[in-house]
Amino acid sequence: MSFSNLEIRTKCNNGATDSTEGGANMFDLSKFSLKGKTAIVTGGSRGIGKAIAQGFAKAGAKVAVTSRKLNDLEANAAEIKAFGGEAFPVQAHLGKMEEINRMVKTVMDEFGRIDILVNNAGTGPASTTVLNSDERLWETIINLNLKGVYFTSQAVAKVMKTQGGGKIVNIASVDGIKPEPGVSIYDVSKAGVRMITSAFALELAPFNIRVNTIAPGPISTKLLDSHWAHLPAEEFKKGKQELAEKTPMRRIGEPDEIVGAAIYLASDASSFTTGAEIVVDGGTLLYVPLEAPVPPEEKQ
Ligand SMILES: NC(=O)c1ccc[n+]([C@@H]2O[C@H](COP(=O)([O-])OP(=O)(O)OC[C@H]3O[C@@H](n4cnc5c(N)ncnc54)[C@H](OP(=O)(O)O)[C@@H]3O)[C@@H](O)[C@H]2O)c1
């Protein structure tokens, strides 16, 4: 096939058609729509998951939001319903197999199908060195961030296979690409999430199930704030400001700034994209510190 003979036809505002060499079909912006789709957003009660759930609802999807605290889920569902969207709160601890399976069954009972899964729920408590990390911390982080993502994907992919397709979006982190001192188990879990994307994308492609990753940099949420939450207010502010200054864009991102990438990967706009990763980090990965990192225990 020769690309030189193909045409991109772009519809102008006045409805006229403009022809340019280079592509095959007119791109239709409605491919970004999630109208008629059903979605699960894990960790949909606050932070990045709340923003994605609201963005999906605005794009037309019915959204099931799930996490451990029902009150927070109900609050987000109420906000979504207030702007005319559809939301369904489901309480579940996603580090536990029986709760993952119950959550998926509850959503199927309510929606009858699952077109989109966003594996966003994640945790990264306690800054500690590789020499001091213990089994309890490992299990808390790995059970949710890695086992939870793997088996929620598996349970939902079985549904999607029967339906004839679907989209899975995994929220990893720039920490899964370049480690951050003091959060090694979190780093390991997020590197694993990136491999879950690759492994699932490869095996599920024949079933029309696409699997992709978003790797956020620093985003202003409770999880990020937990780095300094134990410090007095002034120190908290200073720590967050220092992080912002190390970011090439000189600021920390907002949860809303992850939503565009999530809608792209969850919609038909990304129809030929699987096993890919979108980094949304204000340039964080471009930054090479000139000083050696200091492990948390050695800080003054
Ligand atoms: N913020 C950042 O700078 C940043 C950067 C890179 C990647 N990320 C990733 O983005 C994702 C969202 O993080 P966030 O910053 O929005 O964090 P967050 O504000 O702390 O939100 C975490 C969400 O996960 C839920 N959750 C926690 N433990 C759970 C469990 N065991 N079972 C089910 N749900 C659980 C929480 O609700 P409950 O407490 O009610 O369960 C909450 O809805 C995470 O995967 C995180 O690793 C964040």
Order of strands, widest sheet: 5-4-3-6-7-8-9
Q: What is bound: which ligands?
A: NADP nicotinamide-adenine-dinucleotide phosphate
**CATH superfamily membership:** NAD(P)-binding Rossmann-like Domain
SSE string, helices as H and strands as E: EEEHEHEHEHEHEHHHE
- Count of all domains: 1
Overview of the molecule:
This protein has a single domain, classed as NAD(P)-binding Rossmann-like Domain (Rossmann fold, 3-Layer(aba) Sandwich). The strands form two sheets. Strands 5-4-3-6-7-8-9 form a seven-stranded parallel sheet, with helices on both faces. It has a two-stranded antiparallel sheet with strand order 1-2. Helix content is 39%, strand content 16%. The chain has helices at 47-58, 70-82, 97-111, 135-163, 184-204, 222-225, 233-246, 259-266; strands spanning 7-11, 17-21, 38-42, 62-67, 86-91, 116-119, 166-171, 209-216, 277-280. The longest helix has 29 residues, at 135-163. It binds NADP nicotinamide-adenine-dinucleotide phosphate. NADP nicotinamide-adenine-dinucleotide phosphate binds next to helix 1 and helix 6.
